[in-house]
Amino acid sequence: MIHTPIPESPFVPPLITGTDDRVALDVLFRSLVDVCRRHQPELEAVLRGQADIAGLSPELTARALQVRGIWFQLIAIAEQNTAMRRRRHVEREAGRDRLKNSFSAVLARAAARGVPAETVHALLASLRVRPTLTAHPTEAKRVTVLEKFRRIYLILKELEMPRWTERERQALMDDLRDEIELVWMTGELHLEKPTVDREVAWGLHFFDETLFEMLPETLASLEEALGSAYPGAQVEVPAFFQFGSWIGGDRDGNPFVTAEVTRRTLRQNALASLRRYRDRIDGLARTLSISARALPVTGGFAAALEGQLALQPDGGRIARRNPGEPYRQFLTCLSRRLAATITGLEDEPGQDPTGPGYADADALIADLRALEEGLSAAGCPPLAANRVRPVRRMVEIFRFSTVRLDIRENTTRTTRALQALWHRTHQGEPPDVDAPAWTQWLEAELARPLDDPPDLSGLPEEAQETLATFRLVAEMRGSLDREAFGAFVLSMTHSVPDILGVYLLAKTAGVFLDAAGTEICPLPIVPLFETIDDLRAAPAIMRALLKVPVVRRSARQQGGVQEVMIGYSDSNKDGGFVASNWELAKAQRLLTQVGEQAGIGIAFFHGRGGSVSRGGAPTARAIAAQPPGSIRGRFRTTEQGEVVSFKYANRGTAAYQMELLASAVLAHALDGAAPGIPAANPEFDDAMEALSGASRAAYARLLTHPDLVTYFGAASPLDEIALLNIGSRPARRFGARSLADLRAIPWVFAWSQNRHGITGWYGVGSGLKSLLDVRGEAGGALLRRMFSESPLFRLIMDEVEKTLLTVDLDIARDFAGLCPDEGARGTVLAMIEAEYRLTCAMALAVSGDRTLAERFPLYRGRLAERLPVLNQVSREQVNLLRRFRAETDETAREALKSALLLSINCVATGFGATG
Questions:
Q1: Annotated active-site residue in 141, 573, 586, 897
Q2: Residue 637 and residue 633: Cα distance in Å, rounded?
Q3: What is the mean pLDDT of the chain?
């Protein structure tokens, strides 16, 4: 993209209006050019697209890559700003119920279809939506950089306001330039791998900036839409939308997450919410300076105030300091109690709490409700609703934990801990985990009442660490918050004994509700089925598991639901894009039936990533494509890395993204509640089975090719990605050097960097061609019908086409040139080129379009804005990889490394996804 020169005269930014992003982009570009002129004038031509970066010194190349990365971030900010203006325009011109995927639109459709209000209310009472933040290594931006981009976004919002004078607009332009200059001078790269504590702080940043305030507003928006669609309905929507987190709890392959780290994480999570509540209550105390003479206090609130003052050692002084201001006195007491609770958690010497703290969030909720009722009874319902209720809703949502922290571990570690327990009472080697004797031992131990807390002191260190985590669950659920933990997620689940073993570890550590440890485990144990084979085995495993009495009792105590996590990333890495999507859909359909037959509902936790090949897709369409009846108002999904910062860094965008997710789940559930749920189409299912098999076979031929490992390692920045230091977790689960051990994130990341992008399309063309070869014209007609009528097939084809647009075979050949093995290079690249051309042709044959992604002009426009620069950066990355790998001088190598990593960063930022 080439930009025209900017005149030297002072620039007063125009009013940012309308529904396109040209004005915002121009303002941002001018500011970036000013900064570039000040610090590195020789790069202005590069920024304008009038010069190449080839031939620059490594130091100057690094700067050029950084400035291009900054520009990609600024483009994304302008696009978010414009998207907000477009949504406001639609709402102003046509009404909120015309805003696609809004609560108003979903409920208006339901009312028009005749769905009664009672059905909607019952559904809302059972609705559960929980996006779960993960610290998977996909975020290339530091928190300090995120904060600066947040301020840039806010300045753009100010430039939308017509109230500013020319002088004031010039001052805003100066502020904008200053923030961009600070980004320029702030290192974007992590100089060392982040600690888990830093990752926890990164996650909490989004709550402090946006989520604490915007999630209660999202629920209020739903209540408003409900009142509009169903006049007269006055329902307080339950706190169905909450956030989960894996940050500080995911120890699967991450040796840095220990029980002590998880303990610190829980305390930091709790402190984040408690400090926000204290700030809000202090704000209420300043606001509600209501005199008892102006608003007489009712008897109920007077008693509540008396109780609060009696709890404080200096209650009399609080009353004397605010004489005749009962509401301010009440709030001062609440603030004191929160301060005492915070002091107890901070655990800093010399800080003794003044007065009693709060035992749990329920007590604070009750106090805020008493304040609401007191104001309403005294004749001020609006003050109660508009001032106090949002704070109470915040506490109901975030409690004393901010998030529900999941614990994740893999079966290799849990099995070793169980074998250590077995050795305490047995001689010799334990039975094989697949042997009936192992299952019998697990069942016997689960049925045997505990006499006393077991002595675990003689166990191996690893087993003690695993059990220490479960002991922490038992401790913190009782002392911190009953919802401090979400679930225990078991990676690499292959069998019923794998899951029963976790129940036994929980029992041994005292997690069970009963002292004997035989009745109920309150911590949900969630099996994660990741590979194609695991997904196929899941229905049989869950059918057997839901017959186990302790599992059934525990599921009933947890709301009558058993959660199952399904992995998009590893199933894609295992079987390719079509096979993964089809096997996931089949597994959900079959598991839903298993739950119905067992009388215990199956709720799905979707392990998605940011990229298409790891399950990333437009939220509403991805949920609409789920099998009918598979959601039923309960939906969990992972949100990670760049997805988190994209969705939740700014308040307007965060509110939109949360409403989008919740409304899509609500819409899917309402469709399921309506009579006549569409049955599966056997003809479509048969075609999907054929497509899945043929595409997986083509994908397997590439994956099992003896030269692929050699080619992939050389023709991509796979090893260099680890130098980015963007996550505490290692790239390989067990440290081996095989494709099987390589995690899905670096697998996807490296293929996107080298512009092959195979993880989002490879095998699709072969699958489609195979079906057409077998079925002829009838097959073509069937595919076109599926394209129009099958949400799943349409979603697959849409995302394949979008991914194909990011592939560049010329650049891919440049990366292939890094592979010194000529045979491997020629063979593997030829396979990829042939499949790419076939997939492009087949995609157009199915859609009937002339060009790829013709149906998505906005997407094509955004990509066209970025591709010229991305292509140049990709070519430079090839050059940097070649020089970096050949360089032996450490000083020169370090300079090259900085430029290389910035090139990886730049490409990831430009495409908007890493893994």
A1: 573
A2: 13
A3: 90
